Amino acid sequence: MSVVGKLLTAAGIDVNKAVTTNGWSPLHISAQQGHESVVGMLLAAAGVNVNKGLKTDGASPLFMATHMWSASIAPDDPMSAPTTSRRLLLRTRPSAHS
To answer: Which of the residues 28, 56, 89, 94 has the least number of beta carbons within 10 Å of its own beta carbon?
Structure first.
């Protein structure tokens, strides 16, 4: 198991907790840096919030994954986005059963 995987299973871990004064969460950082495996592990964690905005500009992990890498990514077409962006976009799409 990876270090991230071990940390995510530790008691008391809050995957949405800001790790900087500006509000960057582990998911913000992973999405912005394109760390797909870490994003995948964080998305699997209970209670993860892909729409949590930064204190400075309100940017969410979803925004970072879809806009920081390529201006050509279309949020309404998740399948055209890079893998990490696709995971975040599909995670936030309403269910057909809701």
So the answer is: 94
CA distance 45 to 67: 23
| Res. 43 pLDDT band, cuts 50 70 90 | confident
| Three-state secondary structure string covering the chain | CCHHHHHHCCCCCCCCCCCCCCCCCHHHHHHHHCCHHHHHHHHHCCCCCCCCCCCCCCCCHHHHHHHCCCCCCCCCCHHHCCHHHHHHHHHHCCCCCC
pLDDT, tens only, 3-42: 877 877 777 888 889 989 999 998 888 888 877 788 888 8
Kindly tell me the burial class for residue 61, based on how many C-beta atoms sit within 10 Å of its own C-beta (0-12, 13-18, 19 or more).
buried
Query: d(Cα 18, Cα 70) in Å, to the nearest integer?
Result: 25
Q: Is the pLDDT reported for residue 72 higher than 70?
A: no
Structure tokens, 95 = 């269910």
Write down the mean pLDDT value for the chain. 75
